[in-house]
């Protein structure tokens, strides 16, 4: 395993067959050393080998008297915080956090639902969400209430943005509605399970009583908006679901279908009081809103508003 000098979080995730959020949590707790190249986290091969060796040693010694490491007996304090989600606005948020505090923001590109489940399990500090609930027509809160049971949390609006179809230039197949997807000659490219775009599609198929089995290309998955848009641009598929920004970057047409609310959820604990206060200040600052607005395709009207809070 030491042939490479270092690994990305993605590569270690594949090697150990664990989620990227699990690795970020190990880094955050100081159990797995990491370093940054720009905004990318990397792990030395030697450190990874040592971590694996330590786990094997611990396992083989489980019936022996515990060995106490006095230097590590106290709780490891870390300023690392994990921000989950894929939108480029989260990179800007990370920049503001780094500039105005001693926190060290780490980025995880895991989808909304999987990140929320990881937060329930104690992994992740700031989770971004765009999860559509077909029964209520509401975003995010129905999922949070079901998943973060027993936790206290705050839900803050980050921005609003358009979601809809990516189609080829000129929309040659005239794809304009969810029911168009059931036509056999139309091939889609999907997002991965747990992503907000995948849940939006699945909820709309359910509401329109369309079986995924009748959707040509439903099993073809990509892991982010840009990849879906690129597949459409290449001609390998006719339509995909995503946000407006990626369509403009790739140079394809976009058919808006819904305005989605993109929110941030943070657990409320004694340890996160300072973090929550800082995030509120950043989101409501004119400078942050102006920077987001300058990107185009984002609505910051409600940025920083408290959507829901438990006590």
TrEMBL record:
Domain of life: Bacteria
UniProt domain PBP: residue ranges: 98-277
Database matches in Pfam families: HTH_17, PBP_like
Domain Helix-turn-helix: 7-55
Gene3D superfamilies: Periplasmic binding protein-like II
UniProt xrefs under PANTHER family: BLL2305 PROTEIN
Protein name in the entry: Helix-turn-helix transcriptional regulator
Organism: Bacillus xiapuensis
């Amino acid at each position: 395993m030491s042939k490479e000098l270092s690994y990305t979080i993605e590569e270690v995730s594949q090697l150990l067959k664990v989620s990227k959020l699990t690795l970020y949590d190990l880094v955050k707790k100081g159990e797995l050393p990491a370093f940054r190249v720009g905004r990318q986290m990397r792990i030395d091969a030697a450190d990874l080998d040592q971590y694996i060796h330590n786990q094997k040693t611990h396992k083989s010694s489980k019936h022996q008297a515990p060995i106490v490491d006095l230097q590590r007996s106290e709780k490891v304090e870390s300023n690392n915080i994990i921000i989950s989600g894929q939108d480029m606005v989260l990179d800007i948020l990370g920049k503001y956090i780094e500039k105005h505090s001693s926190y060290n923001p780490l980025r995880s590109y895991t989808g909304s639902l999987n990140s929320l489940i990881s937060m329930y399990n104690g992994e992740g500090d700031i989770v971004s969400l765009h999860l559509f609930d077909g029964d209520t027509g509401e975003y995010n809160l129905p999922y949070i209430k079901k998943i973060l049971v027993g936790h206290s949390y705050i839900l803050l609006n980050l921005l609003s943005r358009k979601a809809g179809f990516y189609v080829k230039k000129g929309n040659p197949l005239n794809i304009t509605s969810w029911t168009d997807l059931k036509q056999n000659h139309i091939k889609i490219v999907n997002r991965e399970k747990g992503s907000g775009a995948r849940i939006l599609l699945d909820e709309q198929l359910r509401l329109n009583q369309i079986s995924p089995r009748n959707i040509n290309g439903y099993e073809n998955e990509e892991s982010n908006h840009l990849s879906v848009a690129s597949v459409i641009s290449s001609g390998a598929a006719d339509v995909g679901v995503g946000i407006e920004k990626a369509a403009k970057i790739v140079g394809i047409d976009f058919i808006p279908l819904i305005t989605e609310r993109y929110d941030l959820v943070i657990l409320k604990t004694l340890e996160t009081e300072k973090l929550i206060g800082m995030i509120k200040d950043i989101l409501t600052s004119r400078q942050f809103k102006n920077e987001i607005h300058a990107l185009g395709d984002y609505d910051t009207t409600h940025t920083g508003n408290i959507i829901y809070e438990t006590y």
